[in-house]
């Protein structure tokens, strides 16, 4: 309704209040219909939900990255500890004999001296090399339940045949704590 048009009556407020306003047939009065308060302004649909989802993904990403960094540090510490342990174990494991057995195969004998504070198991890998440096064979020896301060004997049998200039060496050695029931 505009001024000077139509019959008098209650109509939607042309000012957009959401209420009924009285038109006297000539002008809009300041009279509003009793009852419901003005309707709330329409809700603007924005990107709030999208931002919430993106924020959640960003937070999860930060947590994952932080966790990976922490794990990387822990993994490096474990790796450093293993390297130190392997260096220590290399000092504990010795070859005492590298000779042919009765069949002509190279047999490697050695000792493992436990310098740790607990009962330990050893896994020892030995290699047999030709005089040229070519690896002829490898074998493993396992020694279980070596008490602290004790020395245990071990033996590794290979299929490499005895020849002049053959050498034996410890390629790797690891020590693990024994599990006591």
Give a count of the beta strands, DSSP E runs of length 2 or more: 9
Strand order of the largest sheet: 1-2-3
> Level of helix content?
10-25%
Task: Summarize the biggest pleated sheet.
Answer: 3 strands, antiparallel
> What is the tally of helical segments?
1
Instruction: Report the CATH C-level class of the domain at 93-177.
Output: Mainly Beta
Give the CATH architecture of the domain at 93-177: Sandwich
Molecular shape:
rod-shaped
Measure the end-to-end span: 95 Å
How much of the sequence lies in strands comes to 35-45%
Q: Tell me, rounded to a whole number, the average pLDDT.
A: 80
Radius of gyration: 43 Å
**Secondary structure category:** alpha+beta
Oligomer: single chain
Tell me what you see in this structure.
The chain is an alpha+beta fold. Among the domains are: 40 residues, no CATH class; 85 residues, Immunoglobulins (Immunoglobulin-like, Sandwich). It is built from one helix and nine strands, in the order βββαββββββ. Strands 1-2-3 form a three-stranded antiparallel sheet, with no helix packed on it. The mean pLDDT is 80.
């Amino acid at each position: 309704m505009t001024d000077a048009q139509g019959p008098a009556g209650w109509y939607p407020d042309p000012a957009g209040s959401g209420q009924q306003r009285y038109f006297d047939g000539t002008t809009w009065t300041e009279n509003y219909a009793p009852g419901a308060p003005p309707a709330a302004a329409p809700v603007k649909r924005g990107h709030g939900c999208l931002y919430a989802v993106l924020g959640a993904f960003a937070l999860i990403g930060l947590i994952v990255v932080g966790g990976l960094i922490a794990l990387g540090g822990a993994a490096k510490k474990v790796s450093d500890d293993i390297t130190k342990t392997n260096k220590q174990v290399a000092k504990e494991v010795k070859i005492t004999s590298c000779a042919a057995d009765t069949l002509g195969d190279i047999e490697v004998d050695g000792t493992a001296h436990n310098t740790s504070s607990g009962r330990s198991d050893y896994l020892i890998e030995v290699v047999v090399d030709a005089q040229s440096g070519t690896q002829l064979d490898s074998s493993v020896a396992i020694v279980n339940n070596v008490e602290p301060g004790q020395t245990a004997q071990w033996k590794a049998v290979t299929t490499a045949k005895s020849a002049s200039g053959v050498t034996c060496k410890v390629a790797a050695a690891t020590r693990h704590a024994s599990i006591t029931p």
